[in-house]
Write a structure and sequence with these properties.
- The structure is a single chain.
- By secondary structure, the chain is an alpha+beta fold.
- It has a single domain (15-92), classed as Arc Repressor Mutant, subunit A (Orthogonal Bundle), CATH 1.10.10.
- The protein contains 4 helices and 3 strands.
- The protein has a 3-stranded antiparallel β-sheet with strand order 1-3-2.
- Helix 1 (15-26) crosses helix 2 (38-48) and helix 1 (15-26) packs across helix 3 (55-64).
- The longest helix is centred in the N-terminal third of the chain and has 12 residues, at 15-26.
- It is globular, with a radius of gyration of 13 Å.
């Protein structure tokens, strides 16, 4: 029996709401990069009433396993890049 594909995470009740919350707090039309930290992740979880057992996993999952929400992609932000242990960037990517 073939293995099922991993979920794209669009219906995530933790990862997607947290990233959307951070994005909405930090977005400005002229931004090319949106920087956020684990502290921002923790604050978003708290504001949303979400418990995340492992907050760094939110960044990891959104970077490599979960599709970035459409509301963010339509504004050009398509890449999440952890810079170091504390800082993470959401970057605009121009699609030709």
């Amino acid at each position: 029996m073939p293995r099922s594909l991993q979920s794209h995470g669009k219906r995530s009740r933790v990862y997607v709401p947290v990233l959307l919350y951070i994005f909405k707090q930090k977005y400005s039309p002229e931004a090319e990069v949106i920087e956020f930290t684990l502290k921002d992740v923790a604050e978003a979880c708290s504001a949303l009433g979400i418990t995340a057992a492992n907050p760094p996993d939110i960044i990891y999952r959104m970077k490599s396993r979960t599709i970035i929400p459409e509301e963010i992609q339509v504004l050009g932000f398509r890449v999440i890049r952890p810079e170091d242990e504390e800082d993470t960037y959401l970057k605009k990517l121009t699609v030709p």
